[in-house]
Structure formats: C-alpha cells, structure tokens
Amino acid sequence: MSKVRGQNKGGTKPQQPVGFLGEVMLKNGRELGEDSTFGTAMVEMGESLRQLSEVKDAFDLNVRQNFLDPLDHLKNKDLKEINHHRKKLQGRRLD
Questions:
Q1: Which residues form the BAR domain (predicted)?
Q2: Does this model's pTM top 0.70?
C-alpha cells in the first residue's frame, strides 16, 4: 500500500504513478500468459508505461538541472548581491 501512496521505505526516490501502473500491468500480464491476447496487450502497455515513466523522470531531471537550479541560484545569490550594491550606492548618494 505504501507504493500506491508514493511512500517508500528505502532511500530511493518515490516512483511515478505511471511507472507503478506499468509494473503492475507487466506483472499481471505475465501471470495471464502469452497465450492470452489480453495478457499480451497488458505486457505491451505495461512496458510502454514503464518507458514513459523513465522519459518523464529524465525530463524532470533535465528541467531541474538546466532551468530551476540556475534560476534558484540567480534568486539566492545574484539578486542578493545586486541589492547589497544598490544599498551601498544609495548610502553613498546620501553622504
């Protein structure tokens, strides 16, 4: 049940719901067997969902590394430095 809620006991990150659904479909499709058309369709759909989950994880990581982290760095470091220099300049103008 912890997998469904997105909680995990290990140190790994929580799995995408799409990936979890893909794993369940793969497992149950294999239990139905390759003789069953429905089982084969479940295995193929489960594999597709698993691949989709991997692509989504890669996209999330790429966006975080190439956009969100630099934006956060700009906000935390560069803008504070700019404000510091503005206050310094304002103090000089008053003198």
A1: 1-95
A2: no
